[in-house]
Amino acid sequence: MKIHPELEEFKRLSEEADVVLVRAEFTADAETPLSAYAKLSIRKPAFLLESVVGGEQVSRYSFVGCNPRKVIACNENETIVTERDGKRKSFPTPADPLDIVEQEMAGIRYAAIDDLPRFAGGAVGYVGYEYASRIEPTVPLAEKDELGLPTLYFLIADLVLIFDHARQTLSICANAYVGDNPATDHAEAAERIADTVKQLSVPSPLLPAELDSVEAPDPPEG
């Protein structure tokens, strides 16, 4: 397995960046975005993003991510932030919950990526309908919350699989947050990639679709 960048290049990039993307590329001949998601979704939470053109045609890239660095769940009155190690903190939800996501991502310097799409890690999630009433008070809320879902829910993804349908490749990308020891950061990112490769090697948990039994037609007469 070839890791990019190598350690010396990683050290050079880390001098001017807070996050350096470490990756390994494979031929995507035996894996699909759906099968990869099925295998990795046990490392919850996970996501699958498909790029689509014109609402019908699948575009060049598909993205799969799991086991995020952080999860941000903004409810009506309380926001809960959960770290990967399970540590949690809660605080009152601000007037604009998106400020939390913006503050999380602000000021982070990412090393330039030349041969990958612009997205290879970061904030992935959804903004619920209830958010509209926070920025436009005339929009009414439902009298009863039937689903009990957060108003905003975002993952801070730092492990992303990128399927390039044009080149038929799979890039496993680990975002390395640079600390005081670049060699350790590089090794930890490479280890996360190796763990992901191992997880992808197991059989898919997807079961074949059940089909109604089909009887063979009667042989022709005569």
UniProtKB/TrEMBL annotation:
InterPro entries: ADC_synthase, Anth_synth_I-like, Anth_synth_I_N. It holds the Pfam family Anth_synt_I_N. It comes from the Bacteria. Residues 29-171 form the Anthranilate synthase component I N-terminal domain. GO terms for biological process: L-tryptophan biosynthetic process. PANTHER family: AMINOBENZOATE/ANTHRANILATE SYNTHASE, ANTHRANILATE SYNTHASE COMPONENT 1. This is Anthranilate/para-aminobenzoate synthases component I. It comes from uncultured Verrucomicrobiales bacterium HF0130_14P10. The lineage of its organism: Bacteria, Pseudomonadati, Verrucomicrobiota, Verrucomicrobiia, Verrucomicrobiales.
